[in-house]
Design a protein that fits this description.
71% of the residues lie in helices and 0% in strands. It has 153 residues and is mainly α. The protein has two domains: 3-83 and 129-152, no CATH class; 85-125, no CATH class. Keywords: Membrane, Transmembrane, Transmembrane helix.
Length: 153
C-alpha cells in the first residue's frame, strides 16, 4: 500500500485518539466516544493533510507537483475545517436553542398539541483555529516520523 496513505490515515487515527485524554485533562470526563466524533482538539483533518504534505516534501522535495497538490488541497481542507464547518456548528447551536425556546413557550400554551421530539443537531462540527494548528503540528511531526521510519527499511 502507498506509504503516504498509511501515514495520513495513521495521523488521523492518532489525532482522533488524542482527543480522549486531552478532553479528560480539560473536563475531567472520560469520553471514549470522542474517537469517532468530529471537531475538537487536535483536528484530525489537519493532522492527516499535514502529515501527507510533510512526507511528500521529505520524500520527493518541495519543488514537486506532488507537494504543491498536497499543500493546496491541505490548506483547503484546513480552511474548511475551521471556517465553513465551524460556522455550521455555530448555526446549529442557535437552532437547538430555538427548539428549547419553543418548548418553553408551549409549556404555557393551553392548546393541546403533539410534538414529535427530534434528535438535537450535532453542535460540534468544525474546529477553532487553535485546534487546526494543533492538528497541523501533530501531522507535521507524524509525517516526519513516517518518513524517517520508511528510510530505515
Amino acid at each position: 500500500m502507498n506509504r503516504g496513505i498509511i501515514i495520513a490515515l495513521s495521523s488521523i487515527g492518532v489525532a482522533q485518539a488524542a482527543k480522549i485524554p486531552l478532553h479528560y485533562m480539560k473536563k475531567k470526563e472520560w469520553k471514549p466516544e470522542l474517537f469517532l466524533a468530529t471537531g475538537g482538539m487536535p483536528s484530525s483533518h489537519s493532522a492527516g493533510v499535514s502529515s501527507l504534505a510533510t512526507y511528500i516534501a521529505m520524500k520527493k522535495g518541495v519543488s514537486t507537483i506532488d507537494f504543491a497538490l498536497s499543500v493546496i488541497f491541505g490548506l483547503i481542507v484546513m480552511y474548511d475545517a475551521q471556517g465553513i464547518r465551524r460556522q455550521t456548528g455555530e448555526l446549529t447551536l442557535k437552532v437547538n436553542d430555538l427548539d428549547e425556546l419553543i418548548d418553553k413557550i408551549h409549556q404555557d400554551d393551553p392548546v393541546e398539541y403533539e410534538e414529535k421530539v427530534p434528535d438535537p443537531l450535532k453542535e460540534v462540527l468544525g474546529h477553532k483555529p487553535g485546534e487546526v494548528i494543533g492538528g497541523a503540528l501533530l501531522g507535521t511531526l507524524l509525517g516526519m516520523a513516517g518518513y524517517y521510519m520508511s528510510k530505515r527499511k
